[in-house]
Amino acid sequence: MLYLVVGLVVFLGTHSLRIGGDARRDALRERLGEGRFKTAYSLLSAAGLVLVVYGFGVARETPEVLWTPPAGMRHLTFLLTLIAMVLMVAAYVPHNSIRARLRHPMVLSVKVWALAHLLVNGTLAHVVLFGGFLLWSVLVFRASRQRDRALEIQYPAGELVPTAITVGLGLLLWLVMLGWLHGILIGVRLMG
User: Fold this and answer.
1) pTM
2) Confidence label for 53 from pLDDT (cuts 50, 70 and 90)
C-alpha cells in the first residue's frame, strides 16, 4: 500500500500545482526555466504513475475488503464510465458543446470515472486509488472554475457536428474499453 500512496502523492501532487492559484507554479517555472520545469514535471508524473500502477497491483494481491457493493452498482458504473469517456473525448475535440458548457471536461471525466469505480469496488486499495483521484478532481475542478471567473475567460459556443463526433467517439472508446481493453490493461474483463 505504501507504493500506491507515495505514487498518488507524487502523481497527483505534480498535477496539483495550480490548485492554490498560478503563483506557485509560475515561480517554480521561472526558477527552473521552462525546459527544466517541463522535464521535472514529466519525470515526476511518470515516476508517480509507475508507483501507482505497481502499488495498486501489489495491493490487489492481498485485498482488504471494506464492503461488498450491491450487484446493481455494476450497471450504474457502466453508465458513469460511458459519461466519463464522452467527457474525456470532449477535452480534445474542438468546438464541441460539451466543452463549451462544462469548460473542464477532462477533470470532470476523472471525477466521474473515480466515482464510478468507488461504487463498484470495496477494497482498501480501490478506495485509496479512486478516492484519491476523486478528491483531486474535485479540488482541481473548483480551482479551475475559480480561475476562469477571476480571469473572465469566455469559452466559444459549441457546434452540433463536433458535439456529435465527441459523443460518438466517447461511445466507441467506452465500447472498446468495456469489451476488450479493460481486460488487457487492468486484468479485469468486464464483458464475456
Assistant:
1) 0.91
2) very high
